[in-house]
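Record type: ASSEMBLY
Status: queued
Input:
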Amino acid sequence: MTTNARWLKLIEDGQWDEAFDSLVGSTQEKLWPVALAMMVDHASAQDVLQECYMIAYEALRDGRWDGHHAPTWLRTVLVRLSLRRLKRARRWAAVKRLFMPEEVAKPMETTLSSTMVTHLDGLPLMQRIALVLYVFDEASNAQIARVLGKSEGAVEQLLHRARKTLKDRLSNEVDDE
Amino acid sequence: MNDVDQFLASWRDEVRRVEAPDVVRPEPATDWVVGWALVGATSCTCVSLILVYFSMQRLQEALMLFAL
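Status: finished
Output:
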């Protein structure tokens, strides 16, 4: 029996805990880098991943999801959760910059180098997410378009712009040195 | 390899080096435990308020008698 068939059988039998463990075991390795690359901050990535699995668990139990196409389903939920959090974080950062500038200067809890964080933070959110899915999920333009709810042409534009923004930033960095 | 590809490659390496955290399995029992706890707490509050109300009435009556 394949992993997918076994997992669908567990759901059919109502063995939720086993189904949950099987879901985490088969998808976490691929989802974690996507979550971390999107959020950058280690704790936020962990929260987003946990919340994504909680939503999946509740959807399975309530019968809102039948367990099919698990990687795509989870990836879409993860992207939406991350996008919501990142938008909120950017709004909050703008408020903090006005009233508590010393708080903004605090470094993130991350293992990524600070220059990398600066470059990634400088990318507009949709560009960043499209780039993460392209680099870490090796997703095609059509798959990214489905997750983001955009056309394939729009995704191509996003990726092109993201690369251009990064190129400009990287060449500016070399000029500064 | 150009600068952007190099950046993306090192980004991929740095992220993939980080070990995935443990995911906690949700506890389905929590829902009804919290539900019953809320029902219990609400009932206790209502009973206490009723008792306080009647005690105050008795106290008022006692004070009236004392005053007379």
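Annotation: The longest helix of chain B spans residues 29-67.
Annotation: Residues 27 and 33 of chain B are 10 Å apart (CA to CA).
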